[in-house]
N-acetylglucosamine-1-phosphodiester alpha-N-acetylglucosaminidase
Amino acid sequence: MAPSAMSRNALLLAVVSLAVHAAFGQNITTNLPQVEYPAFNSTNNDGAANITTYLIENNGPNGTVQTGHLSILHNPIGQFVVLPPAAGCVSTSNGVTTGGRSLTSTTAAAGNCHVAANGALFNVTTGGCLGNLVSNGVVIQAPGTQNVNFGLRNGNFVIGYVSALEAQGRAAGKVPFDQLTSGVVWLVKGGQNNVQQDLPYEDPSTQTTGTIQDFASIVSARTAIGHNAAGEILLLQLDGQSNVRGASLYDVADLLISYGAVNAINLDGGGSSAFVTDGILSSYPSDILNATVNGQTFSFRQERAVTSIVCFKDRFKIAPSQPCDPTSQNPNQCFNAAGTLSICCPGACPLRPGPLAVCGPAVPPTTPSPNTVSASSPTTVTTPGSTTGAPTGPVVAAPTVAPTTAGPVPSGTTATAPAKTSAPGVAAGTPPPCDPTSGNPNQCFNAAGTASLCCPGLCPQTPGANPQC
Ligand SMILES: *[C@@H]1O[C@H](CO)[C@@H](O)[C@H](O)[C@H]1NC(C)=O
Ligand SMILES: *[C@@H]1O[C@H](CO)[C@@H](O)[C@H](O)[C@H]1NC(C)=O
Ligand SMILES: *[C@@H]1O[C@H](CO)[C@@H](O)[C@H](O)[C@H]1NC(C)=O
Ligand SMILES: *[C@@H]1O[C@H](CO)[C@@H](O)[C@H](O)[C@H]1NC(C)=O
Ligand SMILES: *[C@@H]1O[C@H](CO)[C@@H](O)[C@H](O)[C@H]1NC(C)=O
Ligand SMILES: *[C@@H]1O[C@H](CO)[C@@H](O)[C@H](O)[C@H]1NC(C)=O
């Protein structure tokens, strides 16, 4: 049962499975269970994901062998992210439909994930994302569907049922989520196998295997995510083929408990189950690809396109220290949430940095300064260095894949800005919204329209090379 040491193997492709997907969300009407648990907050966290991955080979039911992966993320805060599909969730605007499913490996490669697995279930008819999806503080969608969730909020894991209001970051007394994905079936709760107790709570229409009991009982390929007592993330992927080999959800829960899981949920499985290391598929999927090679037809295996993924990645790499512009006399280098962008600020940095680098609310009204916005490449990151401007709020990675849909974030919400405009470099004329918590309404661009910052007052009439207030 002990996991053997990891080797990076790129396996191949293809077939059947659990069509585990899709449903129309019902809203949570009763007070369904939810737990919080502190994620391990590493004091030695330079932004590099600290990951241990094991290859699994266990005895499965009826003489079968269970193979798969167990990956442990030792420093989850900032290094665990949920990403929408590389193409974005399906969205229709002005009659034009964009987005759709992508391979886990495609989304993972675009997101620079060291380890990734398929995430939430999807609508098998439309390819649309199902359930709640918050990526790096951006609410992609938050229908509040009554299925179990796994999220990270202000340094705490949140496992369980989440209303639409809460998923949208508007629930009283709760800060918005940094990361949130839905699944189906709360596998492990408080260190106990929770499958049977949870089944009645789950909206069964999100999956298409059969009854929710069928969904739980059959053997199939599976993907699950949870945490252990140390506050590390456990990501489990098991190969399989529906009704032939793999694991039931009861088995998955027991296996997770043996690996130390305290809470865990089931993600999409069957042909969707995929485990990717550094952009390369490392699992053995169940979907079949018939292909002709050398004049002969062979059955291969192939990865299925899915919607969201869960990802372990470096938050950012510390680059050589680059102090603020020495002529500005502004000592604080304020970073965006990802630590990939920064600007020199006259005052404090925002408590909760968003997708853009902006100054904090307490900006003195005088002395507009030659602020600089660094490029978005992590390799050109500037760091606080000897200045006092270390990022203050929770550190979460920036979206490396700009979602194409902004979720149902009503105006006045405290959720972070819509995703379409989450990075500087957008053309002038489509200004990104200012940090809604900053109270600074004006987004001032440089002359090229390639960089901007939130300003407490008016923008300059003649913008220069750098954005200025
Ligand atoms: C999938 O999309 C179709 C078409 O919009 C819709 O009728 C159906 O309810 C959706 N299924 C789920 C599970 O949301
Ligand atoms: C659930 O509630 C939210 C917020 O009130 C609403 O936006 C959404 O349309 C509701 N969803 C369903 C499926 O009724
Ligand atoms: C990674 O995590 C392991 C397990 O907690 C720990 O022993 C090790 O020191 C960590 N490595 C780094 C570079 O922080
Ligand atoms: C094991 O085999 C028996 C007999 O064929 C069958 O009834 C049972 O469903 C199988 N169990 C699993 C988990 O496949
Ligand atoms: C993690 O710990 C650091 C201090 O080491 C603290 O500044 C930071 O706020 C903590 N992060 C969270 C999310 O609790
Ligand atoms: C692949 O070939 C097998 C055997 O000929 C057939 O049953 C199956 O439907 C084919 N699958 C696909 C995806 O074409």
Summary: The two ends are 61 Å apart (CA to CA). The first strand starts at residue 4 and ends at 5. Residues 249-258 form the longest helix (10 residues).
